Amino acid sequence: MPSDEELIKEIHQGSQAAMEVLVRRHYKMIFAYLYRRTADYHISLDLTQETLIRMMKSLSIYKEQGKFAHWLLTLAVNICRDYYRSRQYKESLTTPLQNSMPFEPYSNVEDLLNQQEVRIHIQSALQELSDSQREAIVLKYYHEMKVSEIAQTTSSQESAVKSRLFQGIAKLKRILGRMVADEENQG
C-alpha cells in the first residue's frame, strides 16, 4: 500500500486514482473529527466534503513536514472554525439540535440503548465546553494526537493546549457528574 507522500507524488503527476485512494483513506478520520466538534451528522458531512475539496486544491502547497493526516486535520480545524463564525451556524442556533447519526448494528437492543445513551451524554458534555477546550480534547482523545501535534494543528502554544486539556477535562467531569446525578434523581 503506497504511503500518503507517494500518493501525493502520483496526484501531482495527474493520477485521479491516487486522489481517490487518498480521500478514501482519510475520509472517516475527518468526518469523525468534525462530527465530534459539531454533533450534527449532516453538517459534518458537508464540512468533510469541504475539507477534502480544500485538500485537493491545496496539495500543491503541502510541504512534507510531519504527518499528512495532521496537515489534513489542520484543514478540518480551520474549516470548523470558519463554520462556527459563519452565518449558517448563527442561524442554526435558533433551530433545535438534532442528533441524526445513524445507529450501528448491535446484536442486543440493550447494548444499543446503553451505547447511544453514553454517546449522547459525552456529546452533550463536549458541547458545553469552550470551542478551544472541545477542539483540544477531541484531537487528544479521539485522534490520539500528542500535545505538540495539537499545538501545531491548532496554531497554539503547547502550554495553551495543556491548559485547555486540563480545564476541559475538569469541566467534563463536573458536567458528566451532574448528568449522572440528575438521572439518579429522576429515576
TrEMBL record:
<dbReference type="GO" id="GO:0006352">
    <property type="term" value="P:DNA-templated transcription initiation"/>
</dbReference>
<dbReference type="InterPro" id="IPR014284">
    <property type="entry name" value="RNA_pol_sigma-70_dom"/>
</dbReference>
<dbReference type="InterPro" id="IPR007627">
    <property type="entry name" value="RNA_pol_sigma70_r2"/>
</dbReference>
<keyword id="KW-0731">Sigma factor</keyword>
<feature type="domain" description="RNA polymerase sigma factor 70 region 4 type 2">
    <location>
        <begin position="122"/>
        <end position="172"/>
    </location>
</feature>
<protein>
    <submittedName>
        <fullName>RNA polymerase sigma factor</fullName>
    </submittedName>
</protein>
<keyword id="KW-0805">Transcription regulation</keyword>
<comment type="similarity">
    <text>Belongs to the sigma-70 factor family. ECF subfamily.</text>
</comment>
<dbReference type="InterPro" id="IPR039425">
    <property type="entry name" value="RNA_pol_sigma-70-like"/>
</dbReference>
<dbReference type="InterPro" id="IPR013325">
    <property type="entry name" value="RNA_pol_sigma_r2"/>
</dbReference>
<keyword id="KW-0804">Transcription</keyword>
<dbReference type="Pfam" id="PF04542">
    <property type="entry name" value="Sigma70_r2"/>
</dbReference>
<dbReference type="GO" id="GO:0003677">
    <property type="term" value="F:DNA binding"/>
</dbReference>
<dbReference type="InterPro" id="IPR013249">
    <property type="entry name" value="RNA_pol_sigma70_r4_t2"/>
</dbReference>
<feature type="domain" description="RNA polymerase sigma-70 region 2">
    <location>
        <begin position="22"/>
        <end position="88"/>
    </location>
</feature>
<dbReference type="GO" id="GO:0016987">
    <property type="term" value="F:sigma factor activity"/>
</dbReference>
<dbReference type="InterPro" id="IPR013324">
    <property type="entry name" value="RNA_pol_sigma_r3/r4-like"/>
</dbReference>
<dbReference type="InterPro" id="IPR036388">
    <property type="entry name" value="WH-like_DNA-bd_sf"/>
</dbReference>
<keyword id="KW-0238">DNA-binding</keyword>
<dbReference type="Pfam" id="PF08281">
    <property type="entry name" value="Sigma70_r4_2"/>
</dbReference>
